[in-house]
Amino acid sequence: MAKTSKLVAALTRPGPHRVLRGDLAFAGLPGVVYTPDAGLNLPAVAFGHDWLTGVERYSRLLEHLASWGIVAAAPNTERGLAPSVLNLAFDLGTALDIAAGVRLGPGKISVHPGKVGVIGHGFGGSAAVFAAAGMKVKPKAVAALFPTVTNPPAEQPAATLHVPGIVFSAPGSATTLRSNAIELCQAWDATLRVVSKAQADGLAEGRRLTTAFGLGGPDRKTQKAVRALLTGYLLYALSGDKTYADFADPDVHLPKTVAMEDGAATVPLEEKFVALLKR
Q1: Which phi and psi angles does 111 have, rounded to 5°?
Q2: Contact between 247 and 233 (Cβ < 8 Å)
Q3: Which of 37, 131, 231, 261 has the maximal Cβ count within 10 Å?
Q4: 223-250 pLDDT, tens per residue?
Q5: Contacts of 142 (CB under 8 A, 6+ apart)
Q6: At what angle do helices 220-237 and 2-11 cross, to 10 degrees?
Q7: SS3 at position 85
Q8: Residue 261's domain is classified under what CATH number?
Q9: Mean of the pLDDT values across residues 115-142?
């Protein structure tokens, strides 16, 4: 645990790379891409945003990944009141194709096509699952950060996935009707990490339109913990860096997470209703 604690502490801080920011619009897709200032055959992820949340609300997370050597591309589409999870999933695949298909920056940056992943927050977390299931060449890893229920449900494509995956949840979110973190893990056999003291809506930065609908605002502790845990997971899952193998091991309890007992992650849907009625 001491070694892992030091790694988590280090990953909460920016990595060794200077970060460049680019625009996906040059390839016809609204959005942004963050890269290290140099590096060939780098790992890359496409990031899906939450409901009513533009990608600018995730700039620190995307910059953080790039500072640790991971190219991060984020389409800025499907931002209306009734977004399509299928359309965002398609755009995530397009963003990965762009990142892996062209030389980025001043020509000193490239992505290895075998080191790509799909990640997302909330609505975008479920879109990431759809994107991974629909890709001809399956991604090397998928991460759903505090995923939320969508129509159609992401559990359907999750059941077809045979790639490594991780789902982040917040304490108590299993009893909310918006979250499908438990259901995704059950359908997909992904690793579940419950981030201690996290707020599911707190990952996005700055003020969001969703606060007008009674949803939570930004939470720095959530952002800091997720940046560290996600970066460590991706460094191992995409690049194979064994230094961070514990981040992908479901049997290892990581700092900043809640230890779960066997069976604790199984919460039937009817229990969600009961928990809500007792509030």
Answers
A1: -110, 140
A2: yes
A3: 131
A4: 999 999 999 999 999 999 999 999 999 9
A5: 117, 118, 119, 128, 129, 132, 161, 163, 164, 165, 166, 190
A6: 110
A7: helix
A8: 3.40.50.1820
A9: 97
Instruction: With CA atoms as reference, report the closest residue to 147 among 89, 95, 99.
Output: 89
This prediction's pTM: 0.90
Per the structure, the count of domains in the chain is 1
Residue 1: band (very low, low, confident or very high) from pLDDT cuts 50, 70, 90: low
CA gap 206, 221 in Å, rounded = 14
Do you know the residue count of the chain?
279
According to the model, what pLDDT value does residue 260 have? Answer: 60
C-alpha 167/C-alpha 128 separation (Å) is: 11
Closest among 188, 151, 192 to 173, alpha carbons compared: 192
Write down the pLDDT at residue 265: 44
Q: Which two tokens stand for residue 109?
A: 């940056």
Q: Answer yes or no: is pLDDT of 199 > 60.
A: yes
